[in-house]
Amino acid sequence: MRIGIAGTGKMGSAIARRLASLGHGLTVWNRTRARAEPLLQEGLAWAATPRELAQASEIVISMLTDSEALAAVYSGPEGLFAARGSGTLFIDMSTVPPATQQEMARRAAEAGAAYLECPVGGSVGPAKEGKLLAFVGGAEQDLARARPVLDQLCKRVEHVGTHGAGETMKLAVNLPLMVYWQVLGEALSLVQPLGLDPRRVIDILADSSGGPNMLKVRGGMIAQALAGEAPGAVTVDVATMRKDVAAMLQEGRAHGRQLPLTAATLANFERAAQRGLDGADCSQLPVWWLAEGGRT
Ligand SMILES: NC(=O)c1ccc[n+]([C@@H]2O[C@H](COP(=O)([O-])OP(=O)(O)OC[C@H]3O[C@@H](n4cnc5c(N)ncnc54)[C@H](OP(=O)(O)O)[C@@H]3O)[C@@H](O)[C@H]2O)c1
């Protein structure tokens, strides 16, 4: 199939490589062309504008930072929705507030375009291996078209409702994980006076009933960060986590719900950002908390 990727950041690049490795014809577009260069050197094609990307593709997957990025890439004379009559199916995998997806669905209808929201759980590793979790919002017939490709990217595809429902599910899935990053820092701060090897501590926590799957997958990276070893490639940065937690609070408020632990988590992530952690990998959060965040 001819597939376009709009946004070749960390996740978009991993998804593009996965689909290219399965034999699809891939074309990519990214706001900053230099960031797509490694993919172009691997033989993927380049589109000069989002509109050209849509014209060249049967399916376009977008994977962008936030609502502003979605507006910029889909709207306007060179935007994805400008490729009228191409019959392209658009699948947006970005994590944005549910209301943004409702607005995108309205714009898609105006443009006569088929549009699905499909935010995903799982990071760069699962994207490369086709093991993401997908939360789809939109029409059944659009999902039927998307499904063969989604099945190649995801271990589970859940159609949870109309546009906005997918993002609501994604925020709910991510919420305990976000709060866990904060409580992990706090748990480590309790055990720090024992002076144990961080690898051993993380191994014990991961083996316990309170150890989430994340600790089993990322435990090695976290232990490495705690031991002060050089960080590897960034998989999820703190800015992305802050954006998601802010969207969770916004969504809770919109429905008259209180999320007190979520609010406290956001406050601590904002402190971390003020100390320059926005571009750092999430595994640096507990390191920061031990070093300065959690001191009385
Ligand atoms: N990383 C993860 O583990 C993960 C997992 C699940 C979901 N997500 C979600 O996936 C999305 C992408 O995350 P990522 O980690 O891949 O982020 P990333 O590496 O920072 O990539 C962000 C992408 O969005 C583009 N972009 C940002 N603002 C733009 C604008 N105004 N106009 C056009 N393009 C714009 C960037 O283009 P430039 O290169 O030009 O800046 C880049 O292609 C986010 O919504 C995130 O919440 C991430």
What does this structure look like?
- With 296 residues, the protein is an alpha/beta fold.
- It contains 13 helices and nine strands.
- The protein has helices at residues 10-21, 33-41, 50-56, 67-74, 98-111, 124-129, 140-153, 165-191, 198-207, 213-226, 238-254, 260-274, 284-293, and strands spanning 2-6, 25-29, 45-46, 59-62, 89-92, 114-117, 120-121, 132-137, 154-161.
- The protein has a six-stranded parallel beta sheet with strand order 3-2-1-4-5-6, sandwiched between helices.
- Helix 8 packs across helix 11 and helix 9 packs antiparallel against helix 10.
- The chain is globular, with a radius of gyration of 20 Å.
- The structure holds NADP nicotinamide-adenine-dinucleotide phosphate.
- NADP nicotinamide-adenine-dinucleotide phosphate binds next to helix 1, helix 4 and helix 11.
What is this entry, summarized?
By secondary structure, this protein is of the alpha/beta class. 55% of the residues lie in helices and 14% in strands. The chain has a six-stranded parallel beta sheet, with helices on both faces. The protein has a three-stranded mixed beta sheet with strand order 7-8-9.
